[in-house]
Amino acid sequence: MRAAERPSDPAGTGWSARLHVVTGKGGTGKTSVAAALALALAAGGRRTLLVEVEGRQGIAQLFGIEPLPYEERHLADAPDGGEVRALAVDAEEALLEYLDMFYKLGAAGRALRKLGAIDFATTIAPGLRDVLLTGKVKEATTRTSGQRRAYDAVVLDAPPTGRIGRFLNVTAETARLAKVGPIKTQSEGVSALLRSPMTAVHVVTLLEEMPVQETVDAIADLTSLGFGIGKVIVNGARPALPAGPAVTAAELQRGLVAAGLPADRDIVAGLHDEARDQLIRRELEDSLRADLVELGLPMIELPLLPDGVDRAGLSTLARALVSAD
Strand 229-237 to strand 73-78: parallel, antiparallel, or no bridges (unpaired)? Predict the structure, then answer.
């Protein structure tokens, strides 16, 4: 990455970074949001890469395809000639690539793998695994093809908020431990990219207490480590309920009678309990939304998809991600 280089947004999407790191508490839908963002950024003839690093094959499951190998493959077409490609980074394969690239040990590396030495190395040094994973993401982000970048944007479906700070910061730790050599050089390069304006970390949450608290904690941790925070993305947001006083049981009964509907005691009691629960939920969501607003970061709310996250649903989320800006 050239020192003077700055992110650009030629498509006017409002997402100016080149590397978009998407994290969130498990269950918030961060993989779906990452995929939708990759689709949104590929619109208009652009090319994006969607990367996963946790070995879950979440991208393949989301798109209903065979498990992804350790190579970049076409995943989906985007509007106006864009393309999304996908990559599942495997730490062992990345280490083989690293040994071949820096030490010319392609054949020897494959022999080591047969002996189990590579798995042993990444097991006794867990930090090495994350260095290899982030190193491959950095290579894809900065790779050039001719006079232009190979990808207009790279979207990383990153580990959850509980370990995102440790995952992103491991290269800085390794750079301090390795005094010389390619490992130090690569670690420093990855660390510099992740802390540069080229990278933005987006946090996905739900309007629920635990995800919001983890979002607040993760943003504080990432900020203290020097990583740039992009947007807070509220997934599965329900339409706002109209404000007003709570409906009484008597009012419900009168309304049912006026509409010619059954209005016995059990029906009225059930509807009254439901109305009360909805009011409590609305008040809680309003309070949690206020907590997120206090972070002072750009915030996007994505709609709840009643039919689940299919290909059409991803397109809906993609449109919402760019139209919000």
Answer: unpaired
